[in-house]
């Protein structure tokens, strides 16, 4: 599999310092705790989201994602991912997307995964790593190889072949978001708590990633998102906020 020059080693930041990550958590905790909603029926079709959408079409997106888990997942799944496309965004209103991220399922099972949906086909889920450690940062990226052809990356290495998404060039606004699905039960939302750091976008195929600026907030009725520049914390459920505050308290104790 050939190398690409567009995704530079300097952009990957593989060694995220836990103390810096917890500093972001500490700052976000006080703001989040006052606004988080208690778990109840989830959003449209049982899905809920908390993240950021780019303001314009692009050719890629990357982020360092950390699952600050484990999470309470009675049904369905949770995920934190970056990607392009979505339902109805393909040719003639078809579904078309590619995403990579961290997922979690009932029974404390988790994955690093990527998912591809092409027009007139069901989504295809690919496991990249099973049961990755929580609290570990992973740099994930989606980048256009050449017009209409995309690839997903994990910690600076490609983990997929080149993926053809017809008529996708200059059509998709990149997204970085956390997601939960209640499994179709119509019951309580799953809890999640994800840190997204160093969110970046690429503006041309095989292009260099640049820091995410502007954009729009993605939230649902039961989720909370706190942004600081090109980073944000995404949360759902009161237990996630308790975890966030506990981490903030540990950070304060260590710094005294």
Explain the overall architecture.
- This protein has 256 residues and is mostly beta strands.
- The chain is 13% helix and 42% strand.
- It is built from 2 helices and 16 strands.
- The strands form 2 sheets. Strands 2, 7, 8, 9, 10, 12, 13, 15 and 16 form a 9-stranded antiparallel sheet that branches.
- The longest helix has 17 residues.
- It is globular.
- It starts with 17 loop residues before the first helix and ends with a helix.
For the record, give the distance between the C-alpha atoms at the N and C termini, rounded to a whole number: 49 Å
Number of helices: 2
Instruction: Please give the share of residues in helix.
Output: 10-25%
Regions with little confidence, pLDDT below 50 for 5+ residues: 1-22, 33-41
- What is the beta-strand fraction? 35-45%
Principal-axes geometry comes out as: globular
Task: Give a quick account of the main beta sheet: strands, pairing sense, barrel closure.
Answer: 9 strands, antiparallel
What's the gyration radius in Å?
17 Å
Total number of beta strands = 16
What would you call the structural class?
A: mainly beta
Task: Using brief descriptors, characterize the structure shown.
256 residues; mainly beta; 9-stranded antiparallel beta sheet; 2 helices; 16 strands; 42% strand
Task: Give a topology summary.
Elements: H1 18-33, E1 47-53, E2 60-67, E3 77-86, E4 96-105, E5 109-117, E6 124-130, E7 138-146, E8 149-154, E9 157-158, E10 163-164, E11 175-181, E12 192-202, E13 209-211, E14 216-219, E15 223-228, E16 231-236, H2 238-254
Antiparallel strand pairs: 1-11, 1-14, 2-7, 2-12, 3-4, 3-11, 4-5, 5-6, 7-8, 8-9, 8-10, 12-13, 12-16, 15-16
Helix pairs in contact: 1-2
């Amino acid at each position: 599999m050939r190398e690409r020059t567009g995704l530079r080693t300097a952009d990957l930041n593989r060694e995220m310092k836990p103390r810096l990550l917890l500093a972001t958590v500490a700052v976000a905790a006080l703001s989040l705790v006052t606004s988080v909603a208690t778990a109840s029926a989830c959003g449209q079709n049982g899905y809920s989201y908390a993240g950021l959408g780019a303001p314009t079409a692009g050719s890629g997106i990357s982020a360092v994602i950390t699952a600050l888990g484990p999470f309470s997942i009675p049904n369905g799944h949770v995920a934190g991912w970056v990607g392009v496309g979505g339902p109805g965004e393909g040719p003639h209103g078809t579904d078309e997307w590619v995403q990579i991220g961290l997922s979690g399922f009932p029974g404390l099972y988790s994955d690093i995964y990527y998912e591809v949906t092409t027009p007139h086909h069901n989504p295809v889920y690919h496991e990249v790593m099973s049961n990755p450690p929580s609290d570990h940062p992973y740099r994930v990226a989606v980048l256009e190889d050449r017009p209409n052809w995309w690839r997903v990356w994990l910690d600076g290495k490609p983990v997929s072949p080149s993926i053809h998404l017809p008529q996708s060039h200059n059509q998709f606004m990149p997204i970085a978001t956390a997601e939960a699905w209640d499994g179709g039960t119509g019951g309580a939302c799953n809890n999640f708590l994800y840190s997204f750091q160093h969110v970046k976008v690429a503006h041309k195929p095989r292009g260099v990633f640049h820091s995410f600026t502007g954009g729009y907030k993605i939230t649902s009725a039961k989720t909370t998102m706190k942004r600081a520049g090109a980073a944000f914390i995404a949360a759902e459920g009161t237990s996630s906020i308790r975890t966030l505050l506990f981490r903030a308290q540990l950070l304060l104790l260590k710094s005294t």
